[in-house]
Amino acid sequence: xxEKEKNDVFNIVWNFLAxxxxxxxxFIILALSSIVGTIVEQQAEPAKNxxxxxxxxxxxxxxxxxxxxxxxxxxxxxxxWWFISFLSIFSINLIVCSLDRFPKTWKLxxxxxxxxxxxxxxxLPVKKEMKLxxxxxxAKDEFLNSLRLSKYRVxxxxxDNTVQLYCQKWNYARLGVYVVHLSIILIFVGAIIGAVxxxxxxxxxPEGEESDVAYITQGRTIPLGFTVKCNWYExxxxxxxxxxxxxxxxxxxxxxxxxxxxxxxEVNNPLIYKGITFYQSSYGMVPNAQGYxxxxxxxxxxxxxxxxxxxxxxxxxxxxxxxxxxxxxSPALGRDPRTGQLSTYAENMVNPAIAVKFNIxxxxxxxxxxxxxxxxxxxxxGGHEVKFDDYWGVExxxxxxxxxxxxWFIYIACIIMTLxxxxxxxxxxxxxxxxxxxxxxxDKGPVSISxxxxxxxxRLAFENEIDNICSxxxxxxxxxxxx
Amino acid sequence: MTSQxxxxxxxxxxxxxxxxxxxxxxxxxxxxGISATTLTIFGFIAQTIAxxxxxxxxxxxxxxxxxxxxxxVSILRxxxxxxxxxxxxxxxWSLILIHLIVEFKYKIRSLxxxxxxxxxxxxxxxxxxxxxKEIQPLMPALQSNWLLFHVLLxxxxxxxxxxxxxxxxxxxxxxxxxxxxxxxxxxxxxxGIFIVVLIGMGIDFSSLSAAERxxxxxxxxxxxxxxxxxxGVAVLSWxxxxxxxxxxxxxxxxxxxxxASLSLTPNMLDEITYKSINVGFPLFxxxxxxxxxxxxxxxxxxxxxxxxxxxxxxxxxxxxxxYLHARYVKGWRGKRxxxxxxxxxxAVIFTYLGVNLVLSGLHSYGSE
Lengths: 483, 368
Hints:
The complex is a heterodimer. By secondary structure, chain A is an alpha+beta fold. Chain A has helices at about 1-20, 20-40, 45-55, 60-70, 80-110, 120, 135-150, 175-195, 405-425, 460-480, and strands at about 125-130, 155-160, 160-170, 200-205, 210-215, 220-235, 245-255, 260-265, 270-275, 275-285, 290-300, 305-310, 315, 325-330, 335, 340-345, 355-360, 365-370, 385-390, 395-405, 430-440, 445-455. Helices cover about 35% and strands about 35% of the residues of chain A. The mean pLDDT of chain A is about 90. Chain B is an all-alpha fold. Chain B starts with a helix and ends in an 11-residue tail after the last helix. The longest helix of chain B has about 35 residues, at about 30-65. Chain B folds into three domains: about 1-140; about 145-175 and about 280-370; about 175-250, no CATH class. At the A-B interface, helix 2, strand 7, strand 10, strand 20 and helix 9 of A face helix 12 and helix 13 of B.
């Protein structure tokens, strides 16, 4: 008695967890609650969302509403206990319902195909009837051939003076949906592995500096197990406009004091070392940094050579007597379109330029701006060239540092899901029966042929296929009788 | 001739085809139907040429700033799918392609009367949203081999969903018995809001200067009407819109007679909705969600970061997954699933436009 009750409770719970109703509820709850998180900015500064809430609830109520929302986890809702619970219910539902249904489907798939009575064949969704003057054996052979040419594995049953050919294709397509479900579960597994064994951090590395840790949240660090150094960072711009073409940094991996790897990373091209990946994610200026100006000097007709200078330093273009002093720097020099005045229009190094005070023997001193992005601005009277290559040591590269051992599950899940979706949505399970019998009892007279079939999808294509199979068989039979 | 000329030809062809499809819907004259289809095919060919010319121009453009880039990479990077303008055009192209396939496969022409208006609305939206038509350089985040395949498959999916929306909307009208049915009221409101928002944007467009138009959606969205500084204009807009939606509700059932006089049956429309979702769902899942996740992982180090674009794609995915499960496993038919198909497409529009234009996120370059 007790045993039975336990079973009942188990069954009720099991059936509930396996039900499509629960799946429908999970879809709706997840979809609706997700919307909130796309409106309320996640993991943002409180001020941003308070001002958003003020639009709906008024200035005075907004902080209170914010606090209630924050308590409920809406400010980081995709990681809140209740959202994770919904996701867990969704995945339990997926697992239980697949376990519940899979054995039944498997049984159906394994069920051998059986011949059908001739009158049943005539009621199938796709059917054809014909009569031919030929022998039963000839008709059977040609239909068998024709079905085989269409890649069916044909079974046959013989009863007194009737023959039935029957076959199916893509029987296993019915399992496609379980493959899709499995891949979703794999994604969850991958996400859990990533959350438990991986980390997601960042690292802002000024040019020329190195670090052996990454930062997870404010102040919390995680050791890398090696040292990473930023040689330089650069934003490359499209010619003539201020649109970035590429964000790049050169990173060096140092282990036991030795350089083991050097790579130029870009946005879609990270550095991977020992399972840890460094992505180019941002950049910026180091506050109050004093950097080095890298200039290339080239006397007219002579060799180009690079020099490293400080603000205020004076240099000489070798062998010319021409000297220059770096007297000013602007990270983004532009001309104000209204006043025509030169001004700095951005804090980042969008269009860096240096002002150099030149002294050319026998001429009056003059000061000119040399732009990094426009080398022609550094050509002096007399053909000597001063190229502004870089202002080094003032920018930092913003790296996203992450380790995710679960990502392989995600990749595998993507492949499996693609295959599963293909089988589920584009492959059809097709069954064909061909019933052949002499029209009159006995073994003479025309042979009457009933062809019937059904398909799980794409009926039009299936009708064409059956038409082809029949006409191919008929042609062959005609060919025989002519001989 | 330039890409723009071919594109204008195709846009003209689609809009005239829309009118002819609607005339066909009313007259059921075979010649009219054939000319609508012919014009659509003509427009489609012109648009394909426009697309290829633009691709080849942006190939040259790419090579100018990346002279050392090899052939295949250059072709992939030059795919004209970089901003809202190009993606909307590609959406129209995919929609017409899928429509033509459905038309030839199911031999039903009348669907054109529901699909071409969606294409026309998208074309209208391109014009009034003031998106930049220039060939723009590719920003760093988009310089990936995934761009082409991700956008291509996701948009074919969107287009299939667009077809399902057209047929589901037609289905709802066909099975409506009385104007008091909730489904029909829902239908009137959805269609009404679509048209009202577009008209509102049209008014914004005509009231703005050329420079302001570029910011139409970000800063001037419906400011000429509903959000007008003058209270009177705002109130008038609301009153007129409600009257307009009421009008759609009142007279929308007229469509039913037209549809009923055609070879269209509710079953057929239901079937088209189902089949389009059957095509759209796997394309969207693989192209939009999976490829998007893989790309995000290689560019940003996270395959899923719950940014609004990702979240809205997932919401869209949930709605269509719900449709498929409700229909296939629960055996829901008729109104209830048709509503899901309509809701699904609203989610598509929000995923595609709403997120880029209204919400911020990693995908925000779509709004430029």
